[in-house]
Amino acid sequence: MSDTETKPSSNFIRHIIDEDIRNNKNNGQVVTRFPPEPNGYLHIGHAKSICLNFGLAKDYKGGCNLRFDDTNPEKEDMEYIDSILEDVSWLGFEWLDEPKYASNYFGQLYQYAIELIKQNKAYVCSLSPDEARAYRGSLTERGKDSPYREQSIEENLDLFERMKLGEFDEGAKVLRAKIDMASPNINMRDPILYRIRKVEHHQTGNEWCIYPMYDYTHCLSDAIEGITHSLCTLEFEDHRPLYDWVLDQLQTPSHPQQIEFARLNLNYTITSKRKLKQLVDEKHVHGWDDPRMPTISGLRRRGYTPASIRDFSDRIGVTKVDGIVDMSTLEFCIREDLEHSAPRAMCVLNPLKVTIESWSDDRVEDLSAPKHPKDESMGRRTLKMTQVIYIDRSDFEEVPPPKYKRLTIDQEVRLRNSYVIKCNEVIKNEQGEVIELRCSHDADTLGKKPEGRKVKGVIHWVSEQYSLPAEVRIYDRLFSEENPDGAAKKHEDADSHFLDFLNPDSLMVMNEARAEISLEETQPGDSFQFEREGYFTADPDSGADKLVFNRTVSLRDSWAKAGSK
Ligand code: ATP
Ligand code: MG
What is the pTM of this model? Predict the structure, then answer.
């Protein structure tokens, strides 16, 4: 990574690794992995895991594998694989060698399964799914042994091979580990290792019709790859005994250590791929990369930078306790970044025409303004002052509220980087709406204070002739409820109830905006601070006829003050 970064904060995982290195465990090596299931686009929660895994590998001079955990072919797709590769690279990380796939190991996993059967530690079970559920017991009730548990090794080997050859229907048989149906940990009650799925796989085609389960696949993939520290989220804590059990039975190249950490939850949004997919499929948003989505692709389109997301991951830290992080923390990180890196520009979101009567209609004056007030190295831009300009509608009031500092009939205002103007006449349409202001300028105020009076307000503006049409998309929280999932859980149909809390005003489109002429060469992804308005990033929807900007974040945190809207 090229960016200069501060030293990462320490955390309990680093302490474990430091201790391991002191004890020369794994010969002092650190190899981690990020194991996404390619069943959706990555979200900000995954970014936490990516920054943690790749960040540790980098800091300890080890490596990190990107491994697709692709054991559920029905739900997986190449589109998701491509997006994941793009997102991890975009965040600034490099995986070791080629991307890996759990499906690369299907052959080895099959051999390991045969080994377990031979050790009498796995058996083919022919209970129906319903029966199996009943036999499993519950949290308070111990499970019962399957009647197939004591089948002979020979019979199990034969049945397992015939499962592989496609002789049985889906659901007719499974391979189960033989552990303990009385275990208080349900994950240890003879968990399923293999199931029959007669579907094509995006990597292995039709080679397999039995697919290994996540818990069986994951630990073995880690061991095959020589992962030293296998980091996962807290919900896998109860699966750790199974992780270790599988590796303890088999002669694997290594026995990685599983360490759990708290997943990231962010308020006013959701971090579940399944629910995000629902938002996309049901068209509540305009796709996975809709700038309102907490996906990495959505954040990128919105204008978040890789550095801001890495900074966020570092700030929220790594703990063992689940919590909810405030969206304003994420917004703080991008504001910090863009404050330094985004050039300034003027864009009038809601234009009101202003004719400067004291300015001749053919006169054009070039005015120079810095691209960044604190960073000379960004250079300067040229603004064009002309007779007809636009200001924002909210910067003029006929009947101003108290302490109003902008333009009124009686109050002058400075045009940013330009002259002081006063309003002589207000022109209205038949509905009584203000459609134009007739003003005059004080020619003696360019770069200096007006004589004998104070002008407090400074407003932004653009020339009518030298400005570009723009569409500006203003985003608000995707959900109006702080914890849409939690609120949904109070209802019977909790699974789709989170949709009730979608914020109907999460997108506001300003179609008539005008941007200063210096933005002519803007490319999608370029970010600016539109003075007085916020940080904005050009959207790929921009075309020759119209620029499209996404508001990345407001200038200040309006939520902190207002609480909620
Ligand atoms: P989802 O619930 O969104 O489907 P998942 O955990 O099933 O998430 P995976 O593709 O399996 O998604 O996740 C890949 C890795 O990212 C896992 O190691 C997982 O623990 C981690 N991860 C997923 N969500 C979060 C989160 N919210 N915070 C931190 N890590 C996460
Ligand atoms: Mg998962």
Answer: 0.94
